[in-house]
Amino acid sequence: MKLFLSSYRFGDHREAFVDLVGRGARIAVIAAAADSWPVNARSSAVTSELTPLRAAGFTAEEVDVRDFLGAPEALEVRLREFDCLWVRGGNTFVLRAQLARSGADRVIEMLVRSGLVAYAGYSAGACLATPTLIGLDASDDPAEVTPTCGIDPIWSGLALVDFAIVPHGGDSLLEDPQVTARTVAALTTAGAQFTVLTDQEVIVVGRCSDADG
Q1: How far is CA 63 from the centre of its chain?
Q2: Would you tell me how many other CB atoms lie within 10 Å of the CB of residue 173?
Q3: DSSP character for 119?
Q4: What is d(CA 36, CA 90) in angstroms, rounded to the nearest whole number?
Q5: How many helices (H) and strands (E) does the chain have?
Q6: What would you report as the CA-atom Rg of the chain, rounded to the nearest whole angstrom?
Q7: Is residue 65 a contact partner of residue 124, using CB atoms and an 8 Å limit?
Q8: Measured distance CA(64)–CA(169) in Å, rounded
Q9: How far apart are CA 57 and CA 153, in angstroms?
Q10: Tens-place pLDDT, residues 1-44
Q11: 187 SS3 class
Q12: What is the 3-state secondary structure of 11-67?
């Protein structure tokens, strides 16, 4: 299993990402965390991922899970065309719900655990890989889920790692200290293991040492 989990994109470890997925890797951008945003804002968010990935020499394109509602088998076939899934930030609860209602959660978990594709997620995308989304309502609004996805919020992640992630901590430009404190307090009360990531730090699983980047 190969994982690249960060607070913001590559952090300070772009080469660690290249080492993990390979130069020129085929990358599927999943932007479901932005599905509650206005159409133009969501489109800009996708472009903001594709442009730097392509400039870095990767073959990148969006795979919109909404195109595969009721067709998880077709989604699996599509995702097998790629070397890596790049799951961007946004609303973690919307991301989780969109994957659940399309069946993408089960497909992604199977493909990643089997080593068929690498998983790269930042912010909401990184939090999705953890066991729990407890505390993230300090930054992401669960109330956006029902009108966007038609289902209730889900508070569990994919559990690709065994600890929760609090993004945008420390000296991050995007940090709101009150939000970080509320998230940490909720996780502590729940007895959950967690790590706080700055926007420079990443967690890499799948290289020789399976160590933090």
Answers
A1: 14
A2: 8
A3: E
A4: 9
A5: 8, 8
A6: 16
A7: no
A8: 29
A9: 37
A10: 999 999 999 999 999 999 999 999 999 999 999 999 999 999 99
A11: helix
A12: CCCHHHHHHHHCCCCEEEEECHHHCCCCHHHHHHHHHHHHHHHHHCCCEEEECCHHH
Q: What does DSSP say about strands 84-87 and 118-122: parallel, antiparallel, or unpaired?
A: parallel
The two structure tokens encoding residue 169: 């901590």
Report the alpha-carbon distance of residue 22 to residue 163 in Å, rounded.
27
Token pair belonging to 188: 């502590």
Three-state secondary-structure class, residue 159: coil
- The answer for 77, left when phi > 0, alpha when psi is -120 to 50, beta otherwise, is alpha
- Tens of pLDDT, residues 124-171: 999 999 999 999 999 999 999 999 999 999 999 999 999 999 999 987
C-alpha 5/C-alpha 191 separation (Å) is 22
Strand stretches in 108-159, DSSP E: 118-122
Instruction: Kindly state the tokens that stand for 126.
Output: 């990184």
Q: Which of 34, 147, 138, 153 is nearest to 93 (CA)?
A: 153
Tokens of 3: 């994982």
pTM score of the predicted model: 0.94
152, with CB counted inside 10 A (0-12, 13-18, 19+), is exposed
**Amino acid identity for residue 10 in this structure:** F
